[in-house]
Structures are given as C-alpha cells and as structure tokens.
Amino acid sequence: MAGRAESTVLAGARVVLPTGTVENGRVTVEGTRISGTQAENAPVLDLSGHWIVPGFVDMHNHGGGGASFTSGTVDEVLTGVRTHREHGTTTLVASTVTGEMDFLAERAGILSELVEQGDLAGIHFEGPFISPCRKGAHSEALLRHPDPAEVRKLMDAARGTAKMFTLATELPGGIDSVRLLAEHGVIAAIGHTDATYEQTVEAIDAGATVATHLYNAMPAIGHRAPGPIAALLEDERVTVELINDGTHLHPAALELAYHHAGADRVALITDAMDAAGFGDGRYQLGPLAVNVENGVARLVEGNSIAGSTLTLDTAFHRAVTIDRIPVEDVVTSISANPARLLGVYDKVGSLEPGKDADLVVLDEDFRLKGVMRKGEWIVRPETATS
Fold it and tell me: Domain named Amidohydrolase-related: which ranges (predicted)?
C-alpha cells in the first residue's frame, strides 16, 4: 500500500462532478482532502483515458474478505472493510443479521467503536424485526415484532452510531417504531415485509424513507394488490436500494426503478456477505449455513438467496455497461445518494473542494484501476507520475 503525499494533482481524466462530467479534468489532493487550488510544484499523475468518480458509499453490507460484520472479531471486521475498500467502497455501513437481542446489543457495542474510530460509517440492523413470511436468509426462530422498547435498546447499545433499521412495518409496533426512529434521526427502512400497499403508505407517512433491497423479500406487484413495491417507487420521500449483481434483479426491474424513481432516489448497495471478494465455499450467515457457488450465495436449507458476493465496482460496471445507465446517474446512486441519507454528504459522496479525498479511478471500460481514501492510495493506478 502506498502512502499519502502532501499534495498530488490527478490530471487528464474524465472527472464526474455534481454538475456533470469534465473532460481532461484535474483533481488536486492536499493531505486528506480535495483542494480548490493547485499547489505549486505538486507531482502530477497522468490519468488520461481514465475516469475519476467519487468513492463509493455502501449503506447495506454484511461482510467480505471471508469476514462477517455480525459475528467476526474486530480484526475480522476490519478485514472485511479493507476488502471492500480495495473495490472502491471508501465509506461503509456494517449491517447485522437477525440474532438474539442481547447478542445484537453486544455487537452494536463492538461495531460502534469502529464507527468512532472512523473505520465504519454506522450500523444497520437488518432484523430481527422482520416478517417470517419474507424472512429470506434470517432465522425464523429469532424473529420478533418491532417493539419500540427493543428498537430503543439497540439504538442505545449503538451509542449514537445506528444509521438504519430494516422493519416489517405492518407488524405490531411497526408504525410506532418508525416514528421513534424518525424522531432520533435514524433511517427507518421498509424491508423483509409482507405489507400491503396501504400499510406501506402508512409507514412512509410515519417517517420511513428507505426501501431495503427493493423487490427482494417483499410481495411482487399485482394489478389488484400493488403491494409495497408500487408504494415505495411512487413516493418521492423514499430512496430504493437495488442489488445490481445480475442475480437479485433482472435488468428490466432495475431499469423500471431508475425510470420510475429516478437516479436521485436510487441507492446501489451490495448486501454483501462474507464471501464477497473471497470466493466460493461454505459460510455462516448468523446461525444459518450458506453455500456459495459460482458467486451466488444460497442457504443450505431451503436454497433462499443469502445476501450477495457483490462489490460496488462490479455494481458500477454492470450499471453502465449492461444496464446502460448514464455514468453521472450511477455516480449519484452509488455515492451521493447514500452519503446524503447517512448524513455525511458534507464530507463524502462527491468530488468537491473541502471534502475527503475519497475517489475511484476507472479505465475506459469502467474497470477499477485505483482507489484513494482520505488522500491515501488503497489501490494505486499504474500510471506515470511527472
């Protein structure tokens, strides 16, 4: 790993800014931040033929590099974080899976220390407050109704680092839990839900603002019973998560979400589990055994999809080359939108002076070639410095 230079100019690339793409652009890095001016005699890194985009922000991620954020040691969690950084994710929220309440509270305490150290951007609790009808890769025996007192217990255990809870808001206590989260500035996300259209509208009105991996673990759209998908897509207050790995979603479903919600309301996520960036084999997702074959994770018992092995550089590449989403829209969905939702857009999510020097270098085919985080190269592009 290369170290941090005091001042560096990245020149010649197509640079994606909030205002659009700049041909033959320049990004000046001073220390840990992007600078609005160019220091004299600063080394210049020629990135002609490349793209420079903001570092990716993943708000839903369970692990990687062989490590689980739900059960791994601190060192293992950091291994997972580093794995995703090497694939362009410079800001990452650690997601847990369903477990006993005391266990989840203990994990929240451990993960919150890593948030306080700056290694993580927050904690996302996916379960146990979800529907047994749409449990996916969660242990049904450990599921419970979203009692606001228990939601508050996990919030308190996270010591202010809880960023999001996924809830089946139609369950008893669901709406009250949404209101509690909204009052404390924590994202209430609707997911793993069997809600009707009307129940989903009620939850959005109560303060829910995110759809956890839209389409997955929820009823399909019906012409007489439109269900949660229609309600989540149509409401401008809601951001919809999408897992663009080629397994969770048909390209037409992704296109429908972009067309109906617009890029400003899409957040590309990984929902990654331990095998991301690591390989096929047998893994544990909470108490459940998972088999990963050809990059697809499924429960050993029941064969349900069990998260993904996706990294965000692959999601970016698919979105541009397969789904034909404009580059600027993909950047909005993979960096700016999740940064805004997490309340960190003043620091990350776009290439603007004063923000952290978090960026990704892609070649002309949108393959990852470089990653910088806070001015330090995690992956250094193989180009000449003058």
Answer: 51-377
- Which residues, at least 6 apart from 39, have a Cβ–Cβ distance to it below 8 Å? 7, 28, 30
Mean pLDDT (the chain, rounded): 95
Q: Please report which confidence band the pLDDT of residue 1 belongs to, taking 50, 70 and 90 as the band edges.
A: very low
pLDDT in tens, 301-321: 888 888 899 999 999 999 999
Looking at residue 342, its amino acid is L
Contact of 50 with 363, CB cutoff 8 Å? yes
Q: Which of 97, 94, 83 is nearest to 61 (CA)?
A: 94
Place of tokens 């893994």: 283
pLDDT digit string (tens) for 113-138?
999 999 999 999 999 999 999 998 89
Q: Which amino acid is at 373?
A: R
Tens digits of residue pLDDT in 76-91:
999 999 999 999 999 9
Residues that are catalytic? 271
d(CA 32, CA 339): 18
Handedness of CA 272, 321, 336, 344 (dihedral sign): positive
Closest CA to 266 of 213, 196, 318, 222: 213
What span, in angstroms and rounded, lies between the C-alpha atoms of 207 and 338? 17
Joined together, the tokens standing for residue 234 give 């149509």
51 residue type, one letter:
W
CATH number corresponding to 7-53+350-379: 2.30.40.10
What is the 3-class SS of 133-161, one letter each residue?
HHCCCCCHHHCCCCCHHHHHHHHHHCCCC
Would you say 194 and 219 are in contact if contact means Cβ atoms under 8 Å apart? yes
Domain 56-342 has CATH 3.40.190.10: no
3 state DSSP class of 257? helix
Handedness of CA 290, 291, 292, 297 (dihedral sign): negative
* pTM for this prediction: 0.95
**What's the rounded Cα separation, in Å, for the pair 370 and 69?**
25
- For β-strands 56-61 and 89-96, DSSP reports them as parallel
The dihedral over CA atoms of 377, 75, 70, 82, expressed in degrees to the nearest 10, equals 10
Q: What is the DSSP letter of 192?
A: S
